[in-house]
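go over whats below:
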Amino acid sequence: MNNIAVIGLGNIALRHRKNLKHLYPEATIIAVSASGRTPNIPVECADFFCNDIDTLLGLAPDLVVIASPASCHLAHAMIFIEANIAVVVEKPLSDSLDGAQLLLDLALQQQSPVHIGYCLRYLSSAIELKKHLGNKIIGEIYHCSASVGQYLPDWRPNKHYSASVSANSQLGGGALLELSHELDYLQWFLGPLTCQYAQLRTSKELALDVEEIADLVLTNTQGTVCNVHLDFLQKQPQRECTFIGSTGRLHWNLISNTLTLYSAAETKILYQAADWDKNKMYINMLNDFTSRIARNDANLDSVKDAHQTLRLISQIKQQATWGKVQ
């Protein structure tokens, strides 16, 4: 690859620029402002900066990573898909189901290589869990409980939380979109989910105009019930998931990167790798996608799955009861 562009100047865009420079040291890494502004200081890990999409198209990039706010994903991605340029779109696919549908339709029409950045699928313990669930290590799955929470003001120490994408409804903020990794991996493990109940809440503490807490009850076609909790408020980060089946229980801790089996006969650690470098998720995702580009493999499963996640989020928002923590 000769020219690789990353649209966006936030933390995730910086991570992608660093990883791409590591993977392709001879390539020109182009940083692109999502808003058109020119930063006051040089952009880290970039060989070239531009603030104009037309200029970028003229540079004929081999790959574009779209790490702009979710509300910009549709406009940015369509330009490059139409030009048949390979695109990685950071999650979520869009900030709306209509936007996600337009992107999916265009990708299918163009058969252009597109990948959606749900990087938790590349976490080493996630791959192990997927394998064990496929082998029915706990039999038929009756129930699942997934929970994630982290204090939003701690996410980006260099920016006040109220000015972040996560806090802004116009940029695709809110717990459902920002923490949609959970909805993605649950459907990866269990198939399409349907919302049975949803409560979305805000708090006095953060006082945002987007949901800070989401509590959901979801089901799949086999009758598995999933309780899902997402929040921006926990002072000690939490990310874990438990599956209860006919022959045992599997507990997955995403932070410690461990997988534990509980059965009548034993308690057994199936996988543990606390020191595993989580940046490998992003590296492995990029390697997987670029290897597909090299094979001319236009598999669009990740786009279809991300569209399904937006469909679920749309259903949740339509059915949800709204409240406020007093």
Summary: The CA atoms of residues 65 and 82 lie 15 Å apart. The first helix runs from residue 11 to 23.
